[in-house]
Amino acid sequence: MLWSRAFIPTLRDDPADAEAVSHKLLVRAGFMRQLMAGVYSLLPLGHRVLRKIEGIVREEMNRTDAQEFRLPCLHPREIWDRSGRWSKLGSEMFQFEDRRGSEVGLGMTHEEIFAHLASELRSYKELPQAWYQFQTKFRDEPRPKSGLLRVREFTMKDSYSMDIDEAGLDRSFETHFEAYRRIFKRLGLETVAVEASSGSMGGSQSIEFMLQTDAGEDWVAACRSCGYAANFEKATSRVPDAEAGAALAAPEKFPTPGVRTIEDLANMEGGAPAASQIKTLVYSVDEKIVLVLLRGDDSLVEQKLADNVEAENFRPASAEEIQAALGARPGSLGAVGVKDFFVIADEGLRGRQGMVTGANEDEFHLRGVEVERDIAVNGWLDLREVKAGEGCALCGEPLEVYKCLEVAHIFKLGTVYSEALGAEVLNANGKKVPVVMGSYGIGLDRNLAAVVEAHNDEAGIIWPVNVAPFEVVISVIKPKDVNCFEAAQRIYEALVEQGIDTVLDDRDERPGVKFKDADLVGIPYRVTVGPKGLADGVVELKERRTGDTRDLETTRAAMSIAEFVLDERR
To answer: pTM for the full model?
Structure first.
């Protein structure tokens, strides 16, 4: 490929709306352009990288004996109704009517479709099966941002395992886990596997592969001592003790004028520190009021609550609903004496006494509350957000907390979808049983951006060889000089013949422009061919990652460069 004929529209400045490093660099370096919010066109360089990532993922999936499919993006409502997710995912899924009045949706995932195909399996003898595809997914993301990190249209490799029992699922899950480890190593990403919420996917267990980066939107709690790691949506810790308030024989009401928040009460004379307060949150769960209680210095992880509440509709209650239910506004709410509503309390409140909570009367609170004596708790759950420095739930050592980007998610689905879609086989005893499924997803576009987040400097992108759009760029200092151009062309042809992705920068531009573009695009190796070097029988090789340069004999340059590239590919 000649650079002069390639479409590589590099820019001098970052796009005005870009925050993530990957967003800035992929636009500036000519890898992508935005069509509308959350939808991007991949230009030739971006497409080349995506295909290389796809190739790595395909190789590792085929290594597990998985079989590749290609399923439709357009799905009938009926099949999603059978799993119950048509209405559950209605706000995220693109749903519409076709010209015949049939309701259809654009697939945001394919559990239902693969389970539908699995209904053609007949016997346990056909199991295990592992099926996968590369397909475009659609998600009506309410806040698309950060370039390819949060989009409405994206490419995913999703795979599905089918087994006869849970033991088989465990083996399939482990097989995928190890395959993903190999994929990320080849992509040049150092990931951590963390416990995660299964969310709308359902199932018994899920693991996310996370990349530590400030561009991520997830928080992870991890322990260096024992290796425990979990997304905040799943993370637990040893709840730190807090000083107990004064114990009273019964709760005592006292005025709290102007108090609206935990902080207000903590700062009020005669108030109480946040750790001695009970925070009362009100939720509407299938249109029924539920009270959620936490210690005042804790924050609710809403996903933890959602994972433990069986509900079609789940949302914070409105101010009007709260007033009607409890007779007070937020800031004066509490659960003491409440009998008409379901009360869920965080485990951090268990055994607590001398607490302060709202009296369900505006500008009044109760002190001396003993949680298990004075509040009719219907359910105890771990709902709080862990904090850095708290003890690891496994070993007690301090937890670290850091920001991460999810680059893959794998699930133990069990029989949720096979039962809904009729995927049953005869077991060894001749009895029909539902297939036990797993689901394993990895977003290609997001991983493309993740590589950039992990590999860049002030000059631009630094692609690992395995995914670089070109592995070598040959920069001709004076392309109109016949000797220079012919020497560069010989090296170019020799590299291409050896299977090295190479671009020949033959543009009539100043060397500085060529070098700057090569660094911005992130090509791992740059070969500079100029009259002065040729006169000495050498060309210069520069490694993008380290900045190291060396002179290579012109006659052996292609062979030496190929050795460097092929060695790094491994």
So the answer is: 0.90
